[in-house]
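User: Run a structure prediction on this.
Assistant: Running it now.
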Amino acid sequence: MPSTDPRVDAYIDKAQDFAKPILKHLRKLVHSACPKVEETMKWSFPHFDYKGQMMCSMASFKAHCAFNFWKQKLIESSAFPKEKTAMGSFGRITSLKDLPDDKTMKKLIADAMKLNDEGVTVKRPVSKEKKEVVVPDALLAALAKNENAADTFNNFPYSCKKEYVEWITEAKTDATRDKRLATTVEWLSEGKRRNWKYEKC
């Protein structure tokens, strides 16, 4: 039996009707090619981890879906389009016809597995300038009371932290600030970014 995450089931259930068969098919392919894969939710959409590392992910939007290999740059395949019309390894996916055939997909997943088996990591460009976010005392105090929210915030990149901090500090009144502070903690505890609502657009 594959190891599934109920949050992924819920994500698929809430997706647009056209997207459901696509997401279900992708999920089935990943589990078929990688029986030991682990499902999880990151940045509000389904991810598939293997050997403790991210391997691939899928997402649905209003008019298309996306599927992405975390280490695509290290996987050589003509299945990846040279010009993409959206995020992900295959651009906009509006039907199963937009995906490579199952054999090709399983080969790509196997290649991605091999990279994780070998512990290969993707080098990300590192900025020489160290950026620090000045977190207001009110937010620090709120995060101290919620471990999940604190973990999410601390693991966020600079830009995501900055979005929350600016949203709180730019409040015109104490009442607005307190409301935004409560919402911030709630969203962070759910692993959400400040503008998560717009990520599905």
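The chain has a mean pLDDT of 89.
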